[in-house]
Design brief:
The protein has 29 helices and 37 strands. The chain is α+β, with helices and mostly antiparallel strands. The radius of gyration is 35 Å and the shape is globular. It binds one RNA strand through helix 10, strand 11, strand 15, helix 14 and strand 31.
Length: about 950
RNA sequence: GCCCGGGUGGUGGAACUGGUAGACACGCAGGACUUAAAAUCCUGUGGCCGUUGAGGCCGUGCGGGUUCGAUUCCCGCCCCGGGUACCA
């Protein structure tokens, strides 16, 4: 019998569980290493073969680090609050906690079968009150903090209040939208509600009236990154703009630090770039244009103050607060109807009709601060209320959008920056930051970059405005009108929000009769009976968004059962931060930005000593599905094989890939698959039914889901692990094709046969490892492999490791090597990849502890030293043949030896080489 | 449009700092074993021409460049995947 993977894999999974092999404790004597997977949302569909890709890679890395002597923290848990469980609860009435728990146990079963070396004693679930107590705790801390721009850190709100009491707000440089100023006396005379209103515009967690993304179908608001192309990321429902009272987190206070600190972390460039774009820093100037009315001023933000002499009109957003005041009576009706029209445009329309140009002249003029010219003020929806000042100075010659607007409405396009010869300003704008200023008074002749500096200086010295930095990043809307999330620990007294005292946390999610919003539109938590703080104060009814629990979970694993704190100071000091973080690229601007934000906040309040959650991040690629199709003749139950389908009129139908092998349909299984196919007829080719195939997303509806369970049942977990790695580079997306798995399956059998041999009369293979001394050749193979595997793992090149193991086993098989001195180290280096078979071999080699406690063998260069090298001899760069030469020869000797060879002389045919390039140990190139 | 990735055999992919392109595997073809099949093992397998124990030419998306030598570096273009979208 060959390698019995079923029994052996089960045996070791039980061993690891019973012996708590991967349980880890603080150990100051060992260097630590923290490997984290992005924890999954446990969906009802279970894992498909794409999900474990990252888990396997990080597991290999963890196991490797253990062998290298590190104390490895490698935990797993569940992002357990979320919409699918709640949608299911709405449909069925089943409490989402029940569905979630069931899904979790299914996930756990699947994960266990893969042989992952998690320390399960540290498991967390974000929906567990012992966990979300601390999520709420962080919220309370955010509520009680403000951001001091001078010190560039968050500080306790009490420090702000004491400044207000002593000197009002004039000396405060805070991240706040509060514009007015007040004195200490005024502050002290304010009523409590008035004070709190002011404080709300300083707190890092605050409630405010804000335009939000409202999704009627989901009955909740969504954050910007949960909206993709005008529809909800989950479910694809339309999203509209709506003004609502909302809890938000002041992430904008951290914009600059979130941007700068990207330089210090080893994350994929694409993720860093996405975060940079999302934060969207732009430097320029804010300046005001006087209006020809009532002494009003229009504030604009521009990144191109160098083009200020090219302004031919101004544009303000339809929502601009000055609009009603400045529009002249004759135009009022037209302008207001335009404003109404643009307000009613849904987000989807707005996004899909980007190129539509619309706007209306307000009848008012602004005065150019330098020329004194009158400039018409327009309203146009291409200007966004939420960015900058909601108004722009339009320079059509040098800005694409202004150009389109000017062209559409026949507004002049004055050129102020020199452009290349023949540039047609009627056709498009010249927006490159290259050239010199022209027609621009004191800026004439300056290059763009210098002109920007000069213009800002001039604007400042004339007190028209000043240099300013703007960010695209918006504060994060934090409340969700949903049931299945962390309650926001806030109650209201006289309409003023107060947070619960920290020692009264957690605020437990109450039971409700239905998971829908109440009839009056209040969120589901309004249905909870007698749910009041101290029996009389209303609680906040929205819950936290999905990303709350995941914004700090990496810390909880460090000390997951601590009931006094997020984690003990010892644990935080020891584990510090994640060394390797593995997860999907889709979290680039959501989770990965929030977790950085919370980490910095916890640092500011002195809780952490680190400012970034993860040193190194790897995005594993997606595994796509490979769908199979059958072709049904129109209006019949007859199916025609792939290559014959052209002769008929057919419809392609997805067929379950699990009843197709190498694109050949299992006809019996197909008939049994669905009742309507039980009497299906087939038109075959060569006696087979061949299916069509296509690469698509792996999903139930496309019948192309391959589960890890079915692969493990058929081939074993080690084989699946190896194959997932063998598919290609970790970061690349690639389609799953089960066909190739026989390669790694063969490898495991070959490996087993290296340690075992057939014996006459015996049914099973017999243990065959001996204690003979290894040969030079065998040692060379082993040490080459040790070096390659270590190098591969260090650079996360797991696919090439698998090839290298194959090469090693092939070569040792050819040498019939059964020597312990070779095969024992091999079992260790293989164990991160194929832990079950390695444990079994390790035990058979006579060890009574887990191979995970062994040491990674030392690589010894001596075994690789060669004295001969087969030099490739090329002529004019083309390799013709090899010549074996001693490596100790000098360049000159090599050249002489090579030129003396008959075959070289023959190819030269009497010509004298112009040049001979000799790279010792590499190549000889003869140029003639 | 802009910003990232990426284009190598029939397929997945390899090639570390510019040095023998196609490792390893799948698939395919031929052979051995077998009554037969499966499994296993052996051989071959980039293309074209030629040979049948000769060899030659072409070849890493396309066009150019640098170099003794380019899949690798530079310039221009094409295609595919992902992100983003009026951010002034």
């Amino acid at each position: 019998m060959e390698y019995p993977f079923q029994s052996i894999e089960k045996k070791w999974q039980e061993y690891w569980k019973n012996n708590q092999t991967f349980k880890v404790e603080l150990n100051p004597d060992k260097p630590k290493f923290y490997v984290l997977d992005m924890f999954p949302y446990p969906s009802g569909a279970g894992l498909h073969v794409g999900h474990p890709l990252g888990y396997i890679a990080s597991d290999i890395y963890s196991r490797y680090k253990r062998l290298k002597g590190f104390n490895v923290l490698h935990p797993m848990g569940y992002d357990a609050f979320g919409l699918p469980a709640e949608q299911y609860a709405i449909q069925t009435g089943q409490h989402p906690a029940i569905t979630t728990a069931a899904n979790i146990s299914r996930y756990r079963e699947q994960l266990d079968k893969i042989g992952l070396s998690y320390d399960w004693s540290r498991e967390i679930r974000t929906c567990d009150p012992d966990y979300y107590k601390w999520t709420q705790w962080i919220f309370v801390r955010l509520f009680n903090s403000w951001y001091d721009n001078s010190e560039k850190k968050a500080r306790d709100i009490s420090s702000l209040i004491s400044v207000f009491e002593k000197s009002g707000n004039s000396e405060i440089n805070a991240a706040s939208e509060f514009k007015d100023s007040f004195s200490a006396n005024e502050w002290n005379s304010f009523a409590e509600s008035e004070r709190e209103n002011i404080l709300q515009s300083y707190r890092l967690a605050y409630i405010s009236e804000a335009t939000v993304n409202w999704c009627p179908a989901l009955g909740t608001v969504l954050a910007n990154e949960e909206v993709k192309e005008g529809v909800s990321e989950r479910g694809g429902h339309p999203v509209e703009r709506k003004l609502m009272k909302q809890w938000s987190l002041r992430i904008t206070a951290y914009a600059e630090r979130l941007l700068n600190d990207l330089d210090g972390i080893d994350w994929p460039d694409s993720v860093k770039e996405q975060q940079r774009n999302w934060i969207g820093k732009s430097e320029g100037a804010q300046l005001s244009f006087a209006l020809d009315k009532d002494g009003l001023k229009l504030e604009v933000f521009t990144t191109r103050p160098d083009t200020i002499f090219g302004v031919s009109f101004m544009t303000i957003a339809p929502e601009h607060e000055l609009l009603e005041k400045i529009v002249i009576p004759e135009r009022k009706e037209e302008v207001l109807s335009y404003v109404r029209e643009s307000a009613n445009r849904s987000e989807r329309e707005r996004v899909s009709e980007v190129k539509r140009i619309s706007g209306v002249f307000t009848g008012t003029f602004a005065i150019h601060p330098f020329t004194g010219n009158k400039i018409p003020v327009w309203v146009g929806d291409y200007v966004l209320a939420g960015y900058g000042t909601g108004a722009v100075m339009s320079v059509p010659a040098h800005d694409e959008r202004d150009h389109a607007f000017a062209k559409h409405f026949n507004i002049p396009i004055p050129q102020v920056i020199s452009a290349p010869d023949g540039f047609d300003f009627l056709e498009k704008a010249y927006d490159a930051k290259e050239g010199v200023c022209i027609n621009s008074d004191f800026l004439n002749g300056l290059k763009v970059k210098d002109a920007i500096t000069k213009a800002v200086n001039e604007i400042e010295s004339r007190s028209i405005g000043k240099g300013r930095t703007n960010y695209r990043l918006r504060d994060a809307v934090f409340g969700r009108q949903r049931y299945w999330g962390e309650p926001i620990p806030v109650y209201y007294k006289d309409g003023i929000p107060y947070t619960l005292p920290e020692d009264e946390l957690p605020l437990i999610l109450p039971e409700v009769d239905k998971y829908l919003p109440r009839e009056d539109g209040e969120p589901p938590l309004a249905r909870a009976n007698d749910w009041k703080y101290k029996g009389k104060y209303d609680y906040e009814l929205t819950t936290m968004p999905g990303w709350a629990g995941s914004s700090w979970y990496f810390l909880r694993y460090m000390d997951s059962s601590n009931d006094q704190s997020i984690a003990s100071q010892d644990a935080l000091d020891y584990w510090k931060q994640v060394d390797l973080y593995m997860g999907g690229a889709e979290h680039a601007t959501g989770h990965l930005l929030y977790v950085r934000f919370w980490t910095k906040f916890l640092y500011d309040i002195g809780f952490l000593k680190i400012t970034e959650p993860a040193k190194k991040l790897i995005n594993q690629g997606m595994i796509q599905g490979r769908s199979n199709f059958v072709y049904r003749l129109k209006d019949s139950n007859t199916f025609v094989s792939y290559n014959l389908r052209g002769q008929h009129e057919t419809i392609a139908l997805h067929v379950d890939v699990n009843i197709v092998e190498n694109d050949e349909l299992d006809i019996e299984a197909f008939r049994n698959w669905r009742p309507e196919y039980s009497d299906a007829e087939f038109i075959l080719e060569d006696g087979k039914y061949i299916c069509g195939a296509e690469i698509e997303k792996m999903s139930k509806s496309k019948w192309n889901v391959v589960s890890p369970d079915s692969m493990i049942e058929k081939y074993g977990a080690d084989c699946l692990r190896l194959y997932e790695m063998f598919l290609g580079p970790l970061e690349l997306s690639k389609p799953w094709n089960t066909n190739g798995i026989s390669g790694t399956s063969n490898f495991i059998r070959k490996l087993w046969k290296l340690y075992h041999e057939p014996v006459e009369g015996a049914k099973d293979l017999v243990w065959a490892v001996n204690n003979e001394a290894p040969s030079k050749a065998e040692l060379k193979i082993l040490h080459q492999t040790i070096k390659k595997i270590a190098d591969d793992i260090e650079r996360y090149s797991f696919n090439t490791s698998v090839s290298n193991f194959m090469i090693c086993v092939n070569e040792l098989t050819n040498l019939k090597c059964r020597k312990r001195a070779i095969l024992e180290p091999l079992a260790i280096i293989l164990s991160p990849y194929a832990p079950h078979i390695s444990e079994e071999l390790w035990e058979k080699l006579g060890h009574n502890s887990s191979v995970s406690q062994a040491s990674f063998p030392e690589f010894n260069q001596e075994y690789l030293v060669e004295d001969q090298f087969a030099y490739p001899i090329s002529f004019n760069g083309k390799t013709k043949f090899n010549i074996e030469l001693p490596l100790k020869l000098s360049k000159e000797q090599i050249e002489q030896e090579v030129l003396d060879k008959e075959e070289v002389k023959k190819l030269l045919a009497g010509q004298t080489p112009k040049k001979v390039v000799v790279v010792p140990g590499r190549i000889v190139n003869i140029v003639f």
